[in-house]
């Protein structure tokens, strides 16, 4: 497998008619039982995995191009190519293919892709070749008609290509072109345009190699200037010879490399500018032209990469202070195009390419370039930087962290990027949007590496928040010192929206780093100043930032919001928006609805106690009344924790709870000990969970009567709260510190001793029980419910237990009355 003759790259043609590299390996041929025939096999040189297994089909058209390429189609839209390292290896595999198909290895294509009609097959038998008319001025019209009539038929197209190739017809046509141009024979020039365009559509590599040779290519372009559909000929040759200049920023000593660069530029120009846009039917006919350009670019990058002196001179001049601005501009543009060409490389070669650039010092060079005043140079440097970040963000992160040990924060590469984003002069902030995307990639933990020795995420984020975050947030902090944004023009608002988008991303992905920064720098309060902006998109960005923070359900954030009364600017924006039904209205209501649905107790109490008077008249949605009801239920539970169990019965009766609720209740049940049950406690069979709602309404009605008596007192307390009032919650969230903890996370049974605060005699304590019984236990009015809605085995055990116990009424009236409390 170490034989370099059989070393190949496997390519497939994608939907954009571009070749995708599938890997490098070694090709062999042999009989494959599963495919029932001789097949081509390519195994990866890295791990020996199978890159390609393709049966040599007798009816498939294989084509040999440029002595080292074999191309074929396996399906209607699935083209494959093998690029050999050596010509000898390509010849060996080509002979094998021709042997299987019974063809002469001297041909460049084994057969036509499309089946011919019976008439064409008869023509093929009767006339082995296509006879071209003599290459004379008066026969050009006949030749143009022959080319046009041959293109629709694959068989005739192949015959025409062979005839043109074998008779050296292209050079004869170009001699005739020069004669027609000297005589200003427009009719002959128009016929030559149609003939040369048709030869392009023959899609044959051997013809392209003649047409794109140094002595022929400019005449080929000249023929394509005389389009009959245009009143005046194009001036492509004048552009290529006078306007387009080959700028040799670093002398290229290799003549083969120079010729390849010239050829590739001109062929690319022909494809993009000279040839008419191909129709849907003609597009596939130019696939070989795409391939020609693609493989030329691969060769150019490889030859430049191997020239160490060239790259050394390039980076030396880039970083040399004595280099004048024009020269540096040309060097940067060359490097940008060099990186763009590298996108054609396969992954392994691209690895080596960027590693070579890194070793040459591309990042320090970019740092110098980004510090310049020339906008065009900075733009090109940004494009190069984007190639590096997209390919290997870890390499960039490692560089900036090492750089921070020697340099001040102001000249760090990442801070230069942030400053260029902030100072973008484009009214639409096109450059700032690109730079923000690069920063987002750099701070994204998803593409950070974790090794045995270090964690890139921890190291880089600590660096970023210490050295860079203050630069990123500076425009935000400078613009939000008052109750309204100090600058509220469109461009400033766009920039602040970009910064907020990046900060929102950090809130979602950076956990404690961003949390410490927001709380210590009071960032959320400053962000909410932007809700007063005249630009709705900026106000919505500020709301989205707060919504992401609330969505984390982090009590550190919640306490920070309550301590600083940060719902106040949100409610002011809601009231200022009035009754308008717009995105602002919906976004604010959704935020409060989230607090209600997720039952964020601390925020619910804070909102109702401080802002209820401003919100009580909003009745077109039930969100705020629902929040008030949540609050009252919390107060009721604080006064009487036994009601938690009552509500769990009602919830279970109406809908199935989610898995988290079940897990909490199961944990509480399994921590209950049967030995702790006292005489006289009711054991309710699971079947009682299916009682009708009417049986449950009596205790509920009693609870509602008592609640109405408390409403009067509550209204007096809440009446004193206003939008601007900054009073502390009257009950100081005591339920979240004691009752909530004891109910949702009961202490383990091993720590419960008789007589201790967590013993069965204390409300909210967890007691142990055997998991084989599913019951509702009531003790001193405390009710705990565990439901196993989907567990058939548990239900069978419960039925057996029911049969073994004495049959009695599920709950006596005295017990039912206690449930209401």
Automatic annotation (TrEMBL):
Record domain Serine/threonine-protein phosphatase 4 regulatory subunit 3-like central: where: 143-633
GO terms of molecular function: protein phosphatase activator activity
Region (Disordered) location: 671-821
GO CC terms in record: nucleoplasm; protein phosphatase 4 complex
Start-end of Low complexity biased regions: 730-756, 765-786
Biological-process GO terms, alphabetical: DNA damage response
Residue ranges occupied by any PP4R3 EVH1-like domain in the UniProt entry: 5-101
Family named by the database record: Belongs to the SMEK family.
Protein name: Serine/threonine-protein phosphatase 4 regulatory subunit 3
Acidic residues bias spans: 671-681, 788-806
Feature: compositional bias, Basic and acidic residues: 703-718
Domain of life (superkingdom): Eukaryota
Reported function: Regulatory subunit of serine/threonine-protein phosphatase 4.
């Amino acid at each position: 497998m170490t034989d370099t003759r059989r070393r190949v790259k496997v390519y497939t043609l994608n939907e954009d008619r571009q070749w995708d590299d599938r890997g490098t390996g070694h090709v062999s041929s042999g009989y494959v039982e599963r495919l029932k025939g001789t097949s081509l096999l390519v195994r990866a040189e890295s791990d020996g995995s199978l890159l390609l297994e393709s049966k040599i089909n007798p009816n498939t058209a294989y084509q040999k191009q440029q002595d080292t390429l074999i191309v074929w189609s396996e399906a209607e839209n699935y083209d494959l190519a093998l690029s050999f390292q050596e010509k000898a290896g390509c010849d060996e595999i080509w002979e094998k293919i021709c042997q299987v198909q019974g063809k002469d290895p001297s041909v460049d294509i084994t057969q036509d892709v499309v089946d011919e009609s019976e008439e064409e097959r008869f023509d093929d038998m009767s006339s082995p070749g296509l006879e071209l008319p003599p290459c004379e001025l008066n026969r050009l019209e006949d030749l143009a008609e022959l080319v046009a009539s041959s293109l629709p038929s694959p068989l005739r197209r192949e015959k025409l290509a062979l005839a043109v190739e074998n008779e050296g017809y292209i050079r004869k046509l170009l001699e005739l072109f020069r004669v027609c141009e000297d005589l200003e024979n427009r009719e002959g020039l128009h016929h030559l345009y149609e003939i040369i365009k048709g030869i392009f559509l023959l899609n044959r590599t051997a013809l392209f190699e003649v047409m794109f040779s140094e002595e022929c290519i400019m005449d080929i372009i000249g023929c394509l200037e005389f389009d009959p559909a245009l009143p005046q000929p194009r001036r492509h040759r004048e552009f290529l010879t006078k306007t387009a200049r080959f700028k040799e920023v670093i002398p290229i000593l290799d003549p083969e490399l120079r010729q390849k660069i010239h050829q590739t530029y001109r062929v690319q120009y022909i494809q993009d500018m000279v040839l008419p846009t191909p129709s849907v039917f003609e597009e596939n006919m130019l696939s070989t032209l795409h391939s020609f350009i693609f493989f030329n670019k691969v060769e150019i990058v490889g030859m430049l990469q191997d020239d160490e002196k060239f790259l050394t001179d390039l980076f030396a001049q880039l970083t040399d202070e004595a280099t004048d601005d024009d020269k540096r501009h040309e060097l940067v543009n060359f490097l940008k195009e060099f990186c763009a060409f590298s996108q054609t490389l396969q992954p392994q070669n691209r690895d080596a390419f960027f590693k070579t650039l890194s070793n040459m010092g591309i990042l320090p060079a970019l740092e110098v370039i980004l510090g310049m005043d020339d906008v065009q140079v900075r733009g090109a440097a940004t494009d190069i930087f984007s190639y590096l970040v997209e390919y290997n963000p870890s390499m960039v992160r490692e560089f900036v962290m090492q750089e921070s040990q020697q340099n001040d924060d102001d000249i760090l590469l990442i801070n230069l990027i942030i400053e260029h984003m902030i100072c973008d002069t484009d009214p639409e902030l096109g450059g700032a949007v690109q730079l923000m995307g690069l920063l987002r990639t750099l701070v994204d933990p998803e593409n950070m590496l974790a090794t045995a020795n270090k964690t890139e995420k921890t190291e880089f984020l600590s660096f970023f928040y210490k050295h860079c975050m203050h630069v990123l947030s500076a425009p935000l902090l400078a613009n939000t010192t008052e109750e309204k944004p100090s600058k509220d023009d469109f461009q400033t608002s766009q920039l602040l929206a970009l910064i907020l988008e990046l900060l929102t991303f950090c809130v979602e992905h950076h956990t404690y780093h961003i949390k410490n920064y927001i709380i210590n720098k009071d960032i959320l309060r400053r962000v909410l100043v932007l809700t007063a902006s005249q630009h709705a998109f900026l106000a919505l960005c500020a709301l989205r930032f707060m919504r992401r923070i609330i969505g984390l359900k982090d009590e550190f954030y919640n306490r920070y919001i309550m301590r600083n009364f940060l719902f106040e600017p949100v409610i002011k924006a809601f009231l200022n928006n009035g009754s308008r039904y717009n995105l602002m209205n919906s976004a604010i209501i959704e935020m409060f609805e989230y607090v209600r649905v997720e039952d964020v107790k601390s925020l619910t109490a804070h909102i109702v106690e401080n802002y209820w008077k401003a919100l009580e008249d909003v009745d077109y949605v039930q969100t705020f009344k629902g929040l008030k009801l949540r609050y009252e239920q919390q107060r009721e539970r604080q006064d009487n924790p036994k009601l938690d169990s009552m509500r769990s019965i009602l919830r279970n009766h109406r809908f199935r709870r989610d898995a988290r609720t079940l897990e909490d209740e199961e944990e509480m049940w399994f921590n209950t000990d049967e030995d702790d049950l006292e005489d006289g406690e009711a054991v309710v069979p699971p079947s009682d969970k299916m009682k009708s709602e009417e049986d449950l309404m009596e205790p509920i009605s009693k609870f509602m009567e008592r609640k109405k008596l408390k409403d009067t007192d509550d209204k007096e307390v809440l009446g004193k709260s206003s939008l601007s009032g900054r009073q502390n919650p009257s009950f100081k969230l005591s339920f979240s510190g004691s009752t909530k903890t004891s109910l949702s996370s009961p202490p383990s049974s091993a720590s419960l001793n008789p007589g201790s605060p967590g013993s069965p005699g204390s409300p909210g304590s967890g007691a142990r029980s055997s998991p084989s019984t599913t019951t509702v236990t009531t003790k001193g009015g405390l009710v705990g419910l565990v439901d196993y809605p989907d567990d058939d085995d548990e239900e069978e055990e419960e039925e057996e237990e029911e049969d073994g116990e004495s049959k009695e009424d599920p709950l006596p009236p005295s017990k039912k009355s206690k449930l209401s409390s």
